[in-house]
Write a structure and sequence with these properties.
316 residues; 2-enoyl-CoA Hydratase, Chain A, domain 1; two-stranded antiparallel sheet
Length: 316
Amino acid sequence: MNWITNYVRPRINSIFSRREVPENLWQKCDECGTMLFHRELKDNLNVCTSCGHHMAISPRDRVEALFDGGIYAEISVPEPLADPLHFRDQKKYPDRMKTAQKNTGEKEAMLVATGEIGRTPIVVACQDFSFMGGSMGMYVGNAIIAAAEEAVKLKRPMVLFSAAGGARMQEGILSLMQMPRTTVAVQMLKEAGLPYIVVLTHPTTGGVTASYAMLGDVHIAEPNALICFAGPRVIEQTIREKLPEGFQRAEYLLDHGMLDRVTPRGQMREELITITRMLLGLPPAIRGDLPPPDPTEETVAEPVEKTAPADLDPKA
């Protein structure tokens, strides 16, 4: 044995047999710094298993976890003008759109779908903050109108998950016009007597908060979600005062009567099932895989013998 056998050959083997390890197997929690395995994190709906911090989750992952069996049908949304103002800052608006579509794999900042939760048919509109900050443009307005029209046509309640930084500046006044448009869409649901439930996620700010996000029959928020019009930093700079701890967070707004519930993501599905069935005047949902009972079928109870068998020990 010599130095070539002892050192050079093992070194060459280690270089050529080295396995590439993916970089996205672990994710660090922003709140507590715990390293979380990606499969464990996904199974827990992107909620930290150590501290309970709610991280961002994509609309498709959210609706797959929400609907029965992860089965849903996507509702088509009318396409708006691609670049109505020919807006350009550091990049052209179409270039920014292409970058966002490539990074997220989605067409726009809102996903509209229909399916069942607890065997209760609903329509869901889910906003994507990772797509240009979930900004409210013409497509988002069209998506909410399409969701409301589908809900009215099918006579189903509508659930909206909001997550946005406000209006989309690249569309200017056309973006701000989505505030009254979406308000009219919500009014359509109210006139049809259909429930409209809003789940406010982190963050929900700007023109979204000033329109459809705060017009629900029931408002639920995820823990520690930032919900506001102007952010706390802007307010502090304006009034030159220190704001209270947790100001504009979900728990603070719940204490001050702005919200009805603060519900962890893992319990959101059950909460929505209960609320939608209550608002629709339906009985509690059937748990498990058994089919629901037929309400038209009459059942007759058999008489029960009240006397115990002689060989049954009463002390057993």
